[in-house]
Specification:
Length: 206
């Protein structure tokens, strides 16, 4: 979710680092401009309509606070914008407003605001659809960029030209789920999609 929710745990579990971001700019794997591409955990697509991706990891963040029997599953996608001129709007486009409306800066705020924060993020994430064991599920997404000067990450709505970062998705899924697909229909590639395919066996624990 936001960098206030388990961001340290998120980065620790996924092994995120500046070095990893640097390596991402040289993503190998297949090139494709076809209408639909399927990506599994570990797969790399070097250039799909100027977007390079790797489905890096999937793991459990925490129980969903407002829906019994559900949990938050985080999906981390390393992403590279290969365009020299165009930004790529990805995920929720009003991160700052959501952060301000539902602050998560301490335990009291987290207890009160985690659920509404997630629902607002999910409602604002219109390019991603999630299916879990055949049923639709809520998900929120944003881009996280690394700032070498401050050695920190910031949440942004777009991946800048030639930029490298992470697409972070948080999905609310039933406990005991088995199969999940996340389909991305980007605004910059009308009529085309990437589908990320995951199973419970791909999970890492936070």
């Amino acid at each position: 979710m936001s960098n206030k929710i388990s961001r340290r745990a998120f980065l620790k579990v996924t092994g995120v680092s500046a070095l990893a971001l640097g390596a991402a700019s040289m993503l190998g794997g297949c090139q494709s401009s076809s209408g639909s591409v399927e990506v599994k955990v570990g797969d790399k697509v070097s250039n799909w309509n100027n977007l390079g991706v790797q489905l890096s990891s999937v793991f459990t963040l925490s129980d969903a606070p407002d829906v019994a029997g559900h949990q938050y599953v985080a999906v981390l996608v390393t992403a590279v914008n290969r365009s020299k001129t165009d930004s790529m709007a990805i995920g929720a486009q009003n991160i700052a407003e959501i952060d301000a409306a539902y602050p998560l800066t301490d335990e009291a705020f987290r207890a009160a605001n985690t659920a509404p924060y997630f629902h607002a993020l999910s409602a604002s994430t219109t390019d991603f659809t999630v299916t879990v064991d055949g049923q639709a599920a809520e998900a929120g997404a944003y881009v996280s960029l690394y700032d070498a000067a401050t050695e920190s990450f910031s949440d942004v709505p777009s991946l800048p030209p030639q930029g490298t970062g992470y697409i972070e998705l948080v999905c609310m899924v039933p406990a005991g789920w088995q199969q999940m697909t996340v389909t991305y229909n980007p605004t910059f590639a009308s009529g085309k999609s990437i589908t990320f395919v995951m199973s419970a066996s791909d999970l890492k624990n936070s």
